[in-house]
Design goal:
18 helices; 417 residues; mainly alpha; single chain
Length: 417
């Protein structure tokens, strides 16, 4: 098996860990609110504290990964967030919980920009969409596994134990990654010359320090379209990452014991959507050109998912909302490999910085959604109302994706110097 597929396996595993640690707190939400005496508005700010730091540190950590190499930077940030995952169990109130979750978000902020940089180093352009598909599918697998791991631990050992156990996983991954992975494929022991020839990297080139040309990037209209699109998309995805279990439990009457599959299936659908979306975007890009391949998946995924989100809010019933939200999450994330592949398409060697900026914008959108959700529920007395708002955001996101042209680099090669 090619060495790059071992790299992909390690990146997929850390993607699973990322979401196990992230979704853990949403599963324990009702228990934490009860024990720490938190209101629904306070809980929204607890969820948002992570999103704030996660958004703020996307760009800096993406740039650090591009500049100093993903081997060191990714190892450091996984170690950081694993420590604060475990420390979540020591929170004694509203203020300490917010502080810990903010620090936790600092570490997780660099995960996907650094992963994207590693993919750019190790995979040819014809495989980046598929690679991103597997990585994002793994994140959703982490989300799907979370209720089956966390709920039994909560019921038998208490909510704090879930954070201690999951925090330990990151330490194991860091050890394997740091001592095996190489930033330059040519430095990997046992790699073949045939595999090196397949990649988009010059195996003989010395690693250079990268200075990101932010002035040129910020002056390019396409950059702003990409980050705006992701801002609107993130309203939906952060609903699933933050309020989804609470919505199903308190908004639609699911019992705690019913949440295993009610939460897992939508994440499994998202996993399938990511894998199929990765293959489809690369296939369409190869057959019809990169501009059309990325655009078709992006626009269709956002537009169709907006319909399912609307139906989930409009039609009452437990089974109905389960079906529509499962379809929504699956179709929604068919566009995700396209969005992240676009960052490599238009960013080239600045892919980590561009993806960091895009994800920062997404997390600002996620912060607004997570913090406003509780207030909208309290103001309307209805858990369905925020879903109508999210559906509208997806429509706008689909409109914006139509204007993204992945065939046009944000910084042309002649302008890099």
């Amino acid at each position: 098996m090619r060495k790059r597929y071992y790299v992909l396996t390690l990146l997929s595993i850390v993607s699973v860990i990322t979401f196990l640690d992230r979704i853990n707190i949403t599963m324990a939400g009702s228990h934490i609110m009860e024990e720490l005496h938190l209101s629904i508005e306070q809980w929204g700010w607890v969820l948002s504290a992570f999103i704030i730091s996660y958004g703020l540190f996307q760009i800096p950590l993406g740039v650090l990964g591009d500049k100093y190499g993903q081997r060191k930077v990714l190892a450091a940030i996984v170690l950081w967030w694993s420590v604060f995952t475990a420390l979540t169990g020591f929170a004694g109130g509203f203020v300490s919980l917010i502080a810990i979750r903010f620090a936790f978000g600092i570490g997780e902020a660099g995960a996907y920009p650094c992963i994207t940089g590693a993919v750019g180093n190790w995979f040819p352009k014809t495989e980046t969409g598929k690679a991103q598909g597997y990585i994002w599918a793994s994140s959703r697998l982490g989300g799907a596994l979370t209720p089956f791991i966390v709920i039994p631990v909560i019921l038998n050992l208490g909510w704090k134990a879930a954070f201690y156990i999951l925090g330990a996983l990151g330490f194991v991954w860091v050890a394997v990654w740091y001592f095996w992975y190489k930033d330059k494929p040519a430095d990997m022991k046992g790699i073949s010359s045939d595999e090196l020839a397949e990649m988009n990297t010059d195996s003989k080139a010395e690693k250079q320090k990268i200075s990101v040309p932010w002035r040129k990037i910020l002056s390019n209209p396409q950059f702003w379209i990409i980050i705006s699109m992701y801002w609107f998309y993130a309203w939906a995805t952060w609903f699933f990452f933050s309020w989804f279990p609470t919505f199903m439990e308190k908004g639609r009457g699911f019992e705690m014991k019913e949440l295993n599959w009610a939460i897992a299936v939508p994440f499994l659908m998202s996993m399938i959507g990511n894998i199929s979306g990765g293959y489809l975007t690369d296939y369409l890009a190869k057959r019809y050109g990169i501009k059309t391949g990325r655009r078709v998946m992006g626009v269709s995924g956002l537009a169709i998912s907006s319909v399912f989100m609307f139906l989930a809010a409009f039609i009452p019933g437990k089974m109905q909302v389960f079906v529509f939200l499962s379809l929504c999450f699956g179709v929604l994330d068919m566009m995700l490999p396209s969005a992240w592949a676009v960052c490599l398409d238009v960013g080239k060697k600045y892919g980590g910085a561009i993806s960091g900026a895009m994800n920062t914008a997404g997390n600002i959108g996620g912060f607004v959604c997570a913090s406003m959700f509780g207030y909208l529920v309290k103001a309307t007395g209805n858990y369905n109302f925020p879903l109508f708002v999210i559906s509208g955001m997806l429509v706008i996101g689909a409109f914006l994706f139509f204007f993204i042209d992945a065939s046009k680099p944000i910084v042309a090669t002649s302008e890099e110097q």
